[in-house]
Amino acid sequence: MAAKATTGGETAAELNNLASAARVAGERGLPPVHLWNPPYCGDIGLRIARDGTWFYQNSPIGRLPLVKLFASILRKDPEGHMLVTPVEKVSVAVEDAPFLAVECLEKDGTLTFRTNVDDHVSADADHPLRFEPGPSEGLKPYIRVRGDLWALVTRPIFYDLVERGETRDIDGRTMFGIASAGSFFPMAPADEIEGLV
Question: Of all helices (H) and strands (E), which one includes residue 174?
Fold first, then answer.
């Protein structure tokens, strides 16, 4: 599938072909996209907005099963985010993070997040939380879902995390952060946290 100007019918066919390949590849759980090295076939107009909405040719993809299917074949390459099947890969423009963490539950000292595409991931050494500067000098929290794919933690969940936060001494400095599954994820120096959340 080469990148080219197409009519609406042709672009819909391209999207359907990609969906069919993804279904076949994912019949037994998450497809092994990290093992595939297909040729790059261009930009077909896929985009994930800041709020987690997927777009195709500037139109929102309203079918959640299709969004979940595409999310299952998403990976991050050095060139950017890609949808990958065994025979092709196409680029996806991502405005912030490809996923949103929309729910968080705690059990036995482990925080488990649910994403907007129903992935479940527990914050641990392999799935760390990270905190980056956000708007108005605030913090934006993320959790690694798989590979180099991250979910932006939604604001209400972030406030819940802050409520669960604790301070620990890290390399001689008192840090405020989140504990989960035996790991500690520093958010900010404890004396600076008030102005960042």
Answer: strand 173-180
Within 13 Å and on the Cβ side, how many CA atoms surround 89? 22
Q: Which of the two residues, 23 and 105, has the higher pLDDT score?
A: 105
d(C-alpha 25, C-alpha 32), whole Å: 8
Token code pair at residue 40:
């790059």
Q: Could you identify the residue written with the tokens 């099963």? A: 65
How far is it, in rounded angstroms, from Cα 189 to Cα 67?
38
| Residue that the structure tokens 């008030």 belong to | 194
**pLDDT for the residue 30:** 85
pLDDT for residue 1 is more than 70 = no
State the Cα–Cα distance between residues 22 and 1, nearest whole angstrom: 15
